[in-house]
Design a protein that fits this description.
The protein is an all-alpha fold. Helices cover 84% and strands 0% of the residues. It is built from 1 helix and no strands.
Length: 43
């Protein structure tokens, strides 16, 4: 199979963008979980 130089970088950009979005979602959930746990400890 011959790799297209045009589609290669584009696919890489899409993949890295999806990966970044996934990491952001996981980080947001982790932050919310940590906040809930700390609020539970405070009360």
């Amino acid at each position: 199979m011959i790799c297209n130089t045009a589609s290669g970088p584009a696919l890489w950009d899409i993949g890295s963008a999806l990966w970044g979005i996934g990491v952001a979602i996981i980080a947001g959930r982790a932050a919310r979980l940590a906040r809930n746990l700390s609020e539970r400890d405070m009360t």
